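User: Teach me something about this protein's shape.
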Amino acid sequence: MKNLFTAFLSMFIVACSTPEKNANSKIDIYDDSVLDIIDIYSEIEVLADSISLPEGPVWDEASQSLLFVDVMGNKLYRWNENDGTSEYISPSGNTGYAPNVDFGLLGANGLLIDENGDIILCQHGDRRLAKINNSSTNSPSFTTLVDNYEGGRFNSPNDLTYASNGDIYFTDPAFGFFNLETFQFVESELKDLNFNGVYKYNTKSGELSLVTDKIDLPNGIALSPDEKTLYVNKMGFIDGSRKIKKINLETMEMTTLFDGAELPEEDEGNFDGMKVHSSGNIFTTGPGGLLVISPEGKLLGKIDFGTITNCAFDDDENYLYATGFINNTKVYRIKLKI
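Assistant: First, the predicted structure itself:
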């Protein structure tokens, strides 16, 4: 009896001495449904720092690595648990393939891993979708997938998403003609297209089709799990309005899913990169950090990474990864609930 009492007493002392776990103050929950995904006790980890403009994160399951780019540095990096961060492919998006201005954002941006394990890149400087073997190199050999629409060279393909049949949807804003010193787009005789398009590229036939030219500054792009809806982030650099647009791919009707005007005016950031979780919820960069939006357009939660450019999940959705903006030169991750 004495031994049993001693055991209970020891358990009680241990329980009382265990410090209470505090919720992460960087996480805001607006709807409890998102607690099935977000762990409010998870801490934000820094994976990389001093990347001048990190972007395009994608998980490479084969090597258990995160790939991401430095748009300003014209490099592609790799991070994993064993090796940390290392330069992987350089140059990444500006090799002299296409004419461009010398002050734009010219490195690669959005990345995909295709069914063969190769890397598909949106190249700002080379103004094309390109493909390359998934291996480290300082003398890359890119294969052009598509570089023009009806004979007009693209502006600077920015972000992309894969459909299960191999179709690639991508955005083509003109950030290759964006002056960071003045923070303005610059007119140039090198610019062939008079609009910023959203496109679909059929990887099997090579056919390219214009989805819409009615979004003045399209950026991040993602498909719903059933692939019936295409989400596109509309940035506010041109007309000041920041919105998430959705396109019904059966009717091609386009509507606004979420309007950034609903957010506090003091929240910094823009609707840039996005990914869709298997739950159907949209994880998007936006004013105030990383926003979680339901398929019905309801704000469910926010994670304050600071101002960020893009996000990604690993294949099992164990972690959410985020890349910072120019004044936030870090790459982050936070553990999710499975």
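Now, about its shape. The domain at 48-333 is CATH 2.120.10.30 (Neuraminidase). The chain has one helix and 29 strands. If you'd like, I can walk through any region in more detail.
User: That's plenty for now, thanks!
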